[in-house]
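Two entries, shown back to back:
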Amino acid sequence: MIASTNLQSIGFIFDLDGTLVDSAYQHALAWQRALQCEGMSLPLWRIHRQVGMSGGLFTELLLRQLKREVTADQLERLQQSHAQAYEQLNGTVRLLPGARELLKHLIDSKIPWAIATSGRLATARHDLAMLAVPERAVITRDDVTRAKPDPDVLLVAAARLDLSVNSAIVVGDSIWDMLAARRAGMLGVGMLSGGYGQDELERAGAARVYEDPGDLLQRLYELGLRF
């Protein structure tokens, strides 16, 4: 985890929702409920296509699809409504298969890792508690000016791990993770567990694609890791 002092040869930067935690669809549903609170409506599948990017950019794209303008106050209410709706859905969120085991294996193998999410810490706390991950191992939207697909959270994570950008492996479930990894100059690895297809992830820059954390754990050798 984030405790290294020397430049490491390789390390992992994980997305959270849809990558380690099975929460991508709960976030989509929470956004749908937030929009409904403001008298707006979009099909759930359209909302899901944007999950994984910065909340501000996310709402901008959704509102463009609605072809309407909103005030700054409405945008703030949307963010708050989403956080409240997601909290109500916390009971349905589960860890993805192999998530804890993968992180433990990396710790045991002395391979550094961190979590970098476009979400805010207040929203992520429940999921981090399930993973038993300390908050110091996590970079969130609160720590940067711009979130994914901008590379800021990934660059902060690499700096905390003392990793050069070409030594970092970014693991994420969305095209926004892969685009952010490319912009940061890092290797992108995709997960199917967030709902994006293999071809979409590969077109966005994923060098390899796995089903879930458990699948990645069984096939870490494909990334050239030696234990």
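entry 2 starts here
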Amino acid sequence: MTGCRALSKEETEKVAQSFTGRYKNRNRLLFVLGLQTGFRISELLSIRLEDVYRDGNVLDYVSVRAKDTKTGRGRELKIHDKTKSYIRAWIEDEVRPPYQYLFSSRKGGHINRFQAHHVLKQAFNEAGLSGKLATHTMRKTFAMRLYEHTDSVHKVSRRLGHQSVAVTERYLDLDMGSWEEQSDYIMSSLG
């Protein structure tokens, strides 16, 4: 989403703690996995349980099928240990078949983009945040933190799946400022 802003470390912590209700583990996982991977919301929602969990174990990598990406190229990223604990927490909420979507809805299938937007907007409000915040905020936060850690627009461009570095440069809006800590601390800052 054009113009969405990234979150600071403190804002990230507030949002991660703001999820409540029956689906708090699912919704927190959506936020955390979005921060860690930089996947687009449609890519996150396409993930099936079997893409992250098999034989009673959380996998080391999360996969998104080529047909579910904007670029038509599948993506596979390592899952941070902290994210694995969030996956376990959601999976332990109830038993699900492996073909079910990770971010399942009550009606079957997965939650849609509008539901994801509503879930995150509610968390942003609960955390007392303002500004242009939406599902794309997770991707923007990922990009800004990765850039700060690597100081490489090329690496960020590759991880985001952008077709050119020029797109990534505009996306990062490098005059916005930055954070001092590395990308890994995204996960270490979440309670």
